[in-house]
Structures are given as C-alpha cells and as structure tokens.
C-alpha cells in the first residue's frame, strides 16, 4: 500500500474542519445547558486540558516510528488480541461516530431546511462524495481541504462578525454564579467531544511522516478551532442569553438567523449550513478513512478500498435507526462523553504503557 | 501507466452515460419545492382568544395587486381567519378557505388582543418559535379595545400593504419618539427565560371609526376615518399582561432600559407661561444596585444630552442664567417622568426595567435568595434617581423672534 503524504499545513486544516464538524452546531447548547453563562470558561478549560493530552498522543506517535497505528496495535497485543481490540475499537468508535455524524447531518437539514425530504437522499449524496474522496486517499483530501478551508473561514467571519453589534455583555454576567462544578463538567464534555476524538489522528501519523510534525498539526488545529469555539460561544450566549441558547436545537444557526442590519444585510443563515456541510464532509471522511484502514488490517486486506461501499451502506441503514427520536438523541448526548472517554483517553494510556513495557522488554532481550 | 488507464476509463462512453444518468436523478430540483404561485405570503398574524379557542387571522399579500399596472378594484391583501384550539391547527385549517398554502417566513407583525395577552402568550408563541419556516425577526404588538382581527383587516394610509404600514410606523417611531418600543421575538424569548426582568410589548389601538377603517374608503380621501396608533408599552408578568403604561410611563421605561435613541420632551418654561421643547440626542441610564442593611436599593444614574428644539415663551437666551434655569427645568421634568414610571411599574408588580437582573449580576448570592419572591421585593424597592442633564445647542436662531416687542410694552 502506498502511503500518501500530506503537509503539516494540510493536516492542520483537515483537523480544524474535523473538530468544527458536529460540535459547531451542537456544542453551544450542550455547554450552555450545563455551565449556563460561563460556557466560554468551559471552552478555555477544555482547550487547556486538551494540551495535557497532547503529550500522551505525541508519545504514542513517537512510539509508532514507521508503522501504522493499526499495525502497531497488532504488534503490541499479538495477532489475535490485537485484531480483536482493533476491531472493537473501530466499530465502537470511528465507525459508530461515522453513523452518528451522518444522522446529525440529516437531522439538522430535515429540522431546519428541507423538512419534507427523507434522510436517505441527503445521506446518499453526502456519502458518495465522502466515499469518492476517501478512495482517492489522504493526499487528495489534503489538497481539497486547502481550498475549502478558506471558504469555511470566510463564511464563519461573515456570519459571526456580524453578530458583534447585537452582543450584550450583560448576558455573560454574573461570572461563576453556580460555582466551578458545572463549568468543569461542561469543560469535560467538550474535552471529550470533540477534542479527545483527536486520538483518531494517530492513524494519520504515517501520512505526515514525523511525530514532531504531527504534533505541530494537532496543536495548531486545536488552537484555531478552540478560539473559533470560544468566539462562537461568547457570541451566541451574549446575543441570545444562556436560557435561550440551552433550549434551542441549533443555537449557532439560530443566532445568525437573528442578524438584521439595515433591513438588507439579513437572511443569510443558509451560509451557516454551507459551512457546516463542508466541515461535516471532512469529519465524515476522516471517520471513514480511519474505519477502512483499521478494518483492512483486521481482515488482512492489502487494499482497504473494497470496504468503502459496504461500510457506508451499513451506515446508511444504521443512521436511521441509531436513535428512535430527537429526545432519545438528547439523552444519548448526555452519556456520550463517558462512553467516548474510554476510547479517547483510557485506550491511548493503555497503548502508551504497553508500548513502554514492550520496548523495555525488547531492549533487555537485545542486551541478553 | 496506471494513471493514464484510469483517466481513460473515466471518459469511456459507458461511464459518461452512467454519470449523466446519475446527474439527472440528482438534479431534479428540490424535494419539497413550492412554486411562488402556490404560496400565500403571510405578512401579519392576529391572534384573538374566543371561548377557549384561538382565532387566528392572517393577512396575506394579494400578488396580482403588487404589480405596477394593478387594477384598483381589489384589495392589496386578503384576510383569512379561523378558530381552532391551537395555532398550528388554525393555520392548517385556513387552507380550507384559501386557495394557497400559508407561507409564514415573511411574518412582520404578530398582534395579540388583550384577552390572549392576559391569558399568557407563551402558548401561541410556541408554534411560532418551533416551526422551521418562521423567522425570529417579527415584531409583536398588543391591541387594546379592538380585536386583533380588526387590526389585521384594517387599511392603512401611505403603504399599500397594511401590515408593512404598521411595521414601518413602529420602526420609525421607535427611533425618534421615546414612548414606543419595538419588541422583537428574540428579546421576548430572552426575557421569558430570565427571572429578574419582565417582558413588555408595545400596545396600540385603532382610533376613529373601526368599521369604516376596514373599507378602502379609509384611504380614498386625505384624512382617513381611522388609524392605528401606538401608545406605549404594556407590562407583563411572566407571559401574562398585567397593565398598560401610558405615554409618559412608557417613556420612563425606554429611558431606563436605554432604548431612547432620540426623542422630544415638553417642558414648562421656568419663569413664564408656555412650554419649550427639548430634543434629546443622547441618553444613558445606568442601573446601580446596592444593598443597605440587607435590603436592595436601586440608583439610576442618568446622563442626558439635549438640544433646544422649540421655545414657546419669551426668554433671553443670550443670558446664561436663563439657559441654566431651562436646563434645570428640563431636568426636573425628566425626573418626574422617571419617578412616575418607576412607581407605576412597582404598583403593577412587574420588573420591566430589569432591576432584578442588575442584582443578579452584581450580587448573585443574595439574588438566589430573593429570586423566589422578587415581585414582592420589587414593589417596595427604594429607587433613587440622579440626573446629569446637559442642554447644548439652541438651533439656528437665538432668542424667539418678537421678544423685544414684548419687552417694550
């Protein structure tokens, strides 16, 4: 299999769009629901906490050296154990996320724009693009992301800078009214979703070649997406107040809907949907990329491409049944961080420690 | 090698055919498209309560009347109204009367009658917030005396579409006339979720002959038989209407909540009969909460910049002392307006100024104790008003003309 190379810049851009993905629409509500008007503090804490995780991820990236992440797991846990672990991981994390994000996409479009359209056509269209780009490989993704990244930034600036005149700082007061606990809880949610999902980037280490460059991409992307989240949370809450934000399905979209300057600079909220569509596209492509790469190793396939279509077809069916209704989804979102934590934090710790242990053992046996 | 083969395969006739086939399926247009000639654009919605049900009246633009060479024999809008227990049901039931489906993305104005407002507006608003088509940028108005249906079916001068007329009147008067306050949906939403501030809505009523106002005759002569006039704001407690503020009290509300961008005020002349008028160009009120002996207190720090706009009494403006006396008179008159306004809101027990929110921000701990019975506390809260009033300019002339004559006599 030819490894496809990406530059650090391309990787950072891909990671940024990946993190913006679903969180862009959902996060303000989730944060404001817990931390009320202090949600912006949670964003700061979450980013700070994420930088504590970065050394862990980088350590694993260094351990990888030339092997890919999936091969490395096999190396650490043996052929059978490694394959079982990897299979469980892929199905339980990136592939599950692939399904969930597909559902997010259809849910958003069918509640806010095209209410009478069934989910399938929306998903099929999106998925065919995702399959095509993942089939073309990481290098192609890297090049397309360089074009679309600036479009996303432009749309973001267009939509959210126009909110500044209607922002009221009083909506952010009083600071820390309910103490630190809700703030920390919300920060934890944000650390897990979307930041700990960055452990999936470990699959891309061979595409970026060096652990050092990989780390640079991860740090850069977290800083950029983090400041975008911060700005967005500050603006949505100061424009709408926390009580409203926590009761609206897609507050960042709703906030842009309220913009009306001079009776003609208004009604462009559909741009937010465009922005979201692009970010979701890169999010989905990363999940699918990781899923097929990992499953190909599990199944012993030389070429992961034949897996693309079957996996997507299963996901298409699963996306419609993964939760029965919107209320179920809201409930699922509450337990999600605790579930996701195992893959995003505990699993990397396990891999890292086993890696150290193995290496120590190897060096001892070499000396002998 | 491999690459050339792949590009070749992409261009093969079979592949092209398949691509074209897929394209035709994708490019069929929107799934739930709605042609313009199937839609009825709703501009205003009137909501009345009638025997336990809502009566929804919608004002729909008549497309044929919007063109340049329109016939004048038809009304530019049509009104449909329907009774139903819920709003959504009523909207859908209207299709039994109208040839087109209601398109609600362009609602400019929602009008409640007094009864609906007193029963609570949360319920009717829920549909308007929940529906994906409705945009959060319409204004809301409460009508006194007449039903909302009357207001919706009323014909206004100047604008062809009555709802646009009402909408623009509200917007323009809000900018230059302190008592009116245009309340948008998002503001209402915010206030409904906050505990320390109560919402307000503009109120108005039809003055003149309601029956004649609904006929085209209303605009066939220069002076119309009746018109819809905005009076001031109405105070709510939660989502229920509790009282109407008159012009002066509404003015106080807009001053205290910093909604005045420009207005004029009438002041009695200091030493002689007659009035003079000040045009307020800048006004800023700071609500300063404090706690004295465990009890809340409010101080309103007001800064006003104003200009003399009209003088109806003989004064000599070359003399600074006279000017300062006028400034003082204007200050006192504003003081009275603010005091009366606060007293009125206190007697209604509705914290429309957001004093509670001011405490919430500054004293979150005490606020959590007071939150429950804030309405009782608000009624008794002492309010101190400080005004820093500055009269600046006097316009193009100095003293009123003819002053010298009166001095000679």
From TrEMBL, chain A:
Pfam families given in the database record: Spore_permease
Localization per Swiss-Prot or TrEMBL: Membrane
Annotated InterPro entries: Spore_GerAB
Alphabetical GO biological process terms: spore germination
Highest taxon of the lineage: Bacteria
Ranges that cross the membrane: 42-60, 80-101, 121-140, 147-164, 184-205, 217-240, 274-300, 307-324, 336-357
Keywords: Germination, Membrane, Transmembrane, Transmembrane helix, Transport
Membrane topology qualifier: Multi-pass membrane protein
Keyword Oxidoreductase in record: no
Keyword Transmembrane attached: yes
GO cellular component, one term: membrane
PANTHER family with a match to the protein in the record: SPORE GERMINATION PROTEIN A2
Entry's family note: Belongs to the amino acid-polyamine-organocation (APC) superfamily. Spore germination protein (SGP) (TC 2.A.3.9) family.
Name of the molecule in the record: Spore germination protein KB
Organism per entry: Paenibacillus prosopidis
TrEMBL record, chain B:
A single Gene Ontology CC term: membrane
Gene3D superfamilies: Nutrient germinant receptor protein C, domain 3
Boundaries of every Spore germination GerAC-like C-terminal domain copy: 232-395
Topological relation to the membrane, as annotated: Lipid-anchor
Family per similarity comment: Belongs to the GerABKC lipoprotein family.
Record PROSITE patterns: PROKAR_LIPOPROTEIN
Entry's localization field: Membrane
Domain Spore germination protein N-terminal: 32-202
GO biological process: spore germination
Protein name: Spore germination protein KC
Protein's organism: Paenibacillus prosopidis
This protein's UniProt keywords: Germination, Lipoprotein, Membrane, Palmitate, Signal
Main location group: membrane
Coiled-coil ranges (or none): none
